[in-house]
Each structure stands twice: as structure tokens, then as C-alpha cells.
Amino acid sequence: MSISGLVRVTAVSPVVVVGDPAANLQAILAACEKHSDSQILLFPELCLTGYSCGDLFAQNVLLDQTLTSLLQLLKATRHNSSLIVVGFPFSIGGKLYNVAACLQSGEILGIIPKQYLPNYQEFYEARWFHAADGREPAEVYIEGYGSTHFGIDWLLEDEGVIIGVEICEDLWMPIPPSSLQALAGANVLLNLSASNETIGKAEWRRHLVASQSGRCLAAYAYCSAGPSESTTDVVFGGHSLIAECGTVLAESSRVGDGGPLPLDGGFVTADIDIERMDHDRRIQGTFHQSRTDALQPTKRIPLKLKPHPADVKRVINAHPFVPKDPRILKARCEEVFGIQCAALAKRLQQLPNHLPLQIGVSGGLDSTLALLVACKTLSHLGQSPQRIVGWTLPGFGTTDRTLENAKQLMKLLGITSHEQDIRELALNTFSALGHKPFGLDLSGCTMEQVQTKLQQLSEKERHDLVFENVQARLRTLLLMSGGFVLGTGDLSESALGWSTYNGDHMSMYNVNASIPKTLVRFLIDFVAENQFTGEIREVLHSISATPISPELLPPSAKGEIQQSTEAVLGPYELHDFFLHSMIRYGYAPTKIVALAEEAHFSRVYQRKEIVESLRMFYRRFFQNQFKRSCIPDGPKVGSVSLSPRGDWRMPSDASVRAWLDQLEQLSQ
Fold it and tell me: CA 126 to CA 120: how far, in whole Å?
């Protein structure tokens, strides 16, 4: 299934022969053939001659041979519809410019000259080249070809793809030309470079490219000359990168990275996502407040990019909230846990120290994480953990495993614990409501008889919303009556409305408000491994391995959990993927399905399962906005949050029809 909005970019650092345009032409042609599936092919600065020609740039022989090679490149690529961007020296009006030519299907779409010439330390470009300042001729004539666009005031455009080009040092300026190009609409920025390697420069270069793509809310492809350039005084590393909205998508090997020397050239390829960038620009209003008329490109030159190939060269993370790299995951967990603790500390400082901190401890994932945050926060504040009152509130679905885990955890953490069986209260409430759970007459039954009758229910009979909601609201009533209640519900549950309104939906403060379900287990394991040893660590690992369940429906006769949340809703890993795709990037349903399959969910789930889970996600997301419109305060920790006070404001009565209609197309 194809993914809309992708554009394939390849940055190639070929082997150059310094001062030999004919040889360099052959290297470029070979790269064009090798990467013919790419829609945009980017080559380094002055790659037709070599960047390190020095005073040879003043020689007519070199300049004439360069133009000859350029014309031969046009002829040889007349049937190649890739956009090919190459660098070369170009002389007009008695001035020599360091330029980039944009070629497609045997035509020169335009030539852009370099604006900022480094002339310090090892760089002497001003000795040979003239810096562009906007007063250049709008057109230039090339013998043997004809006229073409010239200057720094134009962009290339193909429907939603708008391309800007700058050269090497341009990026290192306080206000790079690419910034102005982005403000003029460019969402794909290309840089032809010749950046030599010195200690620490690669890391700075990487940050520079990533941050520029982030500031410009654009894709940024950077292509640098390699070690086949002259090494008389410096070494060029062949470091090429492709970044998108602040994230490096792909990076080539380079000199000094510990790998093999890229003596045969190198390249890097990635699929950039135009739709993602358009979404980010729509929602980030300050981007469009940054307008300036200084040297901002005003002309658009049309081009027609060839279709994107069928395959995908882009890493699609199946678990976008959980980093794959263990080191990054550890750092992420440490940061998230720290934010949660800081948030709770500020809120507790507004309260009297004698006010109990109430929390329902179920032995499940979410309440365990909230309890760990509470304990750590009180430690930071120099207060006793006994201020925390942990309630175990066993009901009809509570299992021995979760109850024992909850009791053991509270004991080991040293908090005040209290247990209250809510089953009798629930039966009294059913009686007051005139409700017969599952159609059963439970009047006069002992609790053991009630539990036996409930356990004998078939799977089809296990549907009674009143039975579940009464228990959830009774638990909240007991908690709310005793002090400051710490909420435990997570981001994924909020998205799906998997909470009882005015039940577990409500609290005084919720430290888990923007923690996705797929991250909760890793946070608990992180705390277990880094802050505890012995029994506490063992209990925490036991809890992290517990099946996800609200435990409101009766367990099996063997005391095992019968009510699986994921059996009702679908897999949380899918829902978190859907949530991230929809809220963070604004993707449409068909694209989300295609991305899910590309993320290798197709190895675990059939497309029908993915589509059905997404349909469930949309229905519940829209139906349950009324719950999110009045959720308690809680800290934002990542790029996705559903707080109605900041990140997500949506009518509670909005229609989901348009989203479901698009999904229906995949079912036909």
C-alpha cells in the first residue's frame, strides 16, 4: 500500500578527480544511474571540478571544460526525470560564481549562486569567487544551451513540494538563505557543501542541519565533498545528512567515524514526508509571524517530480513513544519521571502538609507508576511516605495476584495503607437503583454465592455497564472523601475514553495524564532497576508483567483475570501508534494504515485487524471527547497531549463520519 506525501532524496558524494570535469562527469552519471529511483539527486559543492582546485579556478581551460561537461550531463540525462542538483564554477559578466544548477530531463531549470563566501582560516573562496547579493542578472545565457534562470530569488515548485537551494557556508550564517526560502514557502531545502573534517566538527554539523530543519519546519538535505578532494592541507569527510523537522532521518559514513574510509564515495537516501511538514506549519502559527522581505525569494519555477517508488526508505517506528535505543529509552524514562515528580511537587507545595495524599493502588501499571511518582516527590520535599494513603479497593473482578502485588508494594514503600472491599457497597447500590447485574437476582445471596454466580457467566453474558460503573464510582467516592486524590489514568485511556465518567476519570491531579500506555511499563521497569533493589524490584517487575485490565468483571473460577482491556479495545500498541500519527502529524486514516503496515505491524496483524482497530480508535476518540473536556490538571511530558486547556480542543459533538468514510474505502 503506497504512502502519500513522500519524496525520495539522495545525497551523493562521488569520487572526484580534482581539476578533471570529464572524469567527474562520469562519476556523476554513474551515481544518477545507480540512484535512478530517487526523485531528487543532490551532489556536493563544485563537484564538476572538485572544490579544492585553488587558483586553477581562474584558468579558462578548466572553466570551458566544465561547461562542456555540464552540456554533456544535460544530454546524457535527458531521459532522466529526477531533479539533479550539481555544483560548478560559472563565469558571467567578468565575475566567477560558485553555483548550483538544477537539472531535469535535459534542461537547466535554474542556477543559484552562493551568497556567503568563507575567507578565514583554511578557506579562501573570496580569492576566486564573487558573492551573490541579489543584484545578479535574472537570466544567463550558456553557449550551446541557451538562457536559464539565475539568481537567489527563486524556488522550484511541484504542487506541494517547494524546493530551495543554498551552498555550504550559507547554512552557517546567523540568517541562512534557507530560512528565507522556508518563509517564502520552501519545504525541501538542499545544501551542496564542501566541509572539511576537524575535531568535533561533524557533531556541530549534525546539530546544525537538524536544527535548521527544525527551525524551518522543513526537510534539509546536506551533501558534502569526500576524501577524494585534495588533501594538501585539509581532508573532506564526505559527510551527508538528511533531516526533517529537527530529526536526522539518515546519515552517511564519513572520514573519522570509526568505519571504513569512504574512498569509493558515499551516499545517503531517505524518504521525506511533505504532509508532516505542512501539518506542522499549519499548527505552529509563529512560523508565519517570522516574515521578512530581506532577500526573500519571490519567483517559482515549475518542475514535475517523477512518482515516488513503491518501496519506502524511511524508518517508521511501530512504537513512537518508546525509543528503540536502550540508552535513549533510559534517558527518556529518567526525563519523564523527573517531569512527573516536579509537577506533583509544585502542586503539593500549594497544599497543607497534613492533607493526606490519596491514591487507589490496584496492583496494575498506571496506579503503580503514580505511586512511585508520589513516593519520589515526597522524598524530594523531605516528607514521610506515610503521608500517602494507598487504598486497595477490591471488587468483583479483583484477582489475588494484583491485590497481593498492591499490598506488598505499599508495605515495602512504607506508605499508609487501607483496604476496603467495595462489593457489599456495590450490591447495596444495585439494590437502590433497582438493577439486577447481568439479569441475576442476587438478593439474599452470600458474597461467596454472588461471586460463584458471576464466575459462571459465559463470555457473551459478561456485559453490564452499570455493574462496572458503580464499582468505579464507589472507589472514587471513597478516595475523594479522605484527602487530595492523585489520579492514575494514562494518555491512551484518555484518548479511548476508557474510564468511568466521574469515576476513575476524576481526581485532584493526574501525574500520568500524558503518559501513553506503551511507555508506562518501561517507566516502572526503569524505576525498579535504577532506584530499588531486592523485594521492591521483584514486585515492580511482577506488576509490569501483569495483563492490562480494569478488573471490574469477575475473574475465572481459577482466579485469573478474565477482563482484558485489549480484547475489548484492540492492542494498545496499535492505538498508541494511531494516536501519535493522528495528533502529532494530522495523518489521514488511509495513510495511518499504510504507515502501520510499513512499521511491520503487518507481521503481527492482518490489514483487516489494523483497519478494525483504527475504526475502533476513531469512534471512541470522537465519542469520548466530553470526558477529555473536563479532565483534571496534569503535566505534559511529550509532543502529544490531550489537555483541553492547551493541546487539544475539540467539540464533544463533532462527527467522525469523514474519517470512517475514508477507512471504509480500505474495506471494499
Answer: 10
